[in-house]
Amino acid sequence: MITATTHTFRLAQVFTISRGSKTEARVITAAVTRGGITGHGECVPYARYGETPESVLSQIATLPPKIDRTALQQALPAGAARNAVDCALWDWQAKASGKRVWQLANLPAPRPCLTAFTLSLDTPDAMRAAAQANAHRPILKIKLGTPDDMPRLEAVRQGAPKSRILIDANEGWTAEIYADLAPHLVRLGVALVEQPLPAGADDSLAEIARPLPVCADESCHDRASLPALRGKYDVVNIKLDKTGGLTEALALRDAARAAGFGIMVGCMVGSSLAMAPATLVAQGADHVDLDGPLLLAEDRPHPMFYNADGIHAPSRDLWG
């Protein structure tokens, strides 16, 4: 039996990107029950990709109750619905076998990974204050994507002079804006810029200088995305809600590495249940952004553990 339900988690504070703001994370929890054992997985429907909680629930409802992971890859497209079910099937298999998911996948036990902490888009003064409050964190990811981003970036660097900075423009710039900003990003020690131009309108990235690594987020979903990224991007951001689950995420990571891309592992704003499988993909990644639970005011029971070493492997009680 496969069931799916909606859960809502309050955010610790308003979270804003170039496309809008949110005060809660609305997620879908899939449950696979067989032989008295239940596995769980979580996804975050994303409007940017034409998803709603209702559409994801409808997709999951179409699945036959005994579907396996292999058949699932063909039954649903890459996206949130397939992610929740794929991760629930992994969790069910781990519980049924008495093994951890990484053992089932022939992977080493996951080690802690340093993760970025995200500062949402705000006024320069507010972003400076947020940076100061989080200046102890080794990596900060800042949301930008407007024509007036330089004061924000300068303010964050002033607030957190020692932190490594990643930038996510969320498709908010033009080629002209990015070309103007790029030298300043280098000057301020930015390590990576994520999706500066809109997906589908990013061909100019192959024609302009890329003085720092450029990461594909909205332009990269699964392995089928990779050929179109050559010459335009240096890094791909792997998110399970885009790949459609852990199965494809692991395959995408291997294919991207083989094609010469750097690896970033990211997340939507979700609970610890969504982060748990992503920690397997994050092993050895160049950049990790699995801070979803750190942005919440409430979380799942048995949440992911974070400390100075980063995000740790999930407990059996949570997932896998």
Give a brief description:
The protein is an alpha/beta fold and 320 residues long. The chain is built from 11 helices and 13 strands.
In angstroms, what separates the terminal alpha carbons? 19 Å
Amount of helix? 25-40%
Number of helices: 11
Total strands? 13
Coarse shape: globular
Which structural class do you get from the secondary structure elements? alpha/beta
Biggest sheet layout: 8 strands, parallel
**N-to-C series of helices and strands:** EEEHHHHEHEHEHEEHEHHEHEEE
Mean pLDDT: 95
Low-confidence stretches: none
Tell me about this structure.
The chain is of the alpha/beta class. It contains 11 helices and 13 strands. The strands form 3 sheets. It has an 8-stranded parallel beta sheet with strand order 4-5-6-7-8-9-10-11. Strands 1-2-3 form a 3-stranded antiparallel beta sheet. A two-stranded antiparallel sheet has the order 12-13. Strand 4, helix 5 (124-133) and strand 5 (139-143) form a beta-alpha-beta unit. Helix 5 runs parallel beside helix 6 (150-159). The longest helix is centred in the first third of the chain and has 18 residues, at 80-97. The radius of gyration is 19 Å and the shape is globular. The two termini are 19 Å apart. The relative contact order is 0.15.
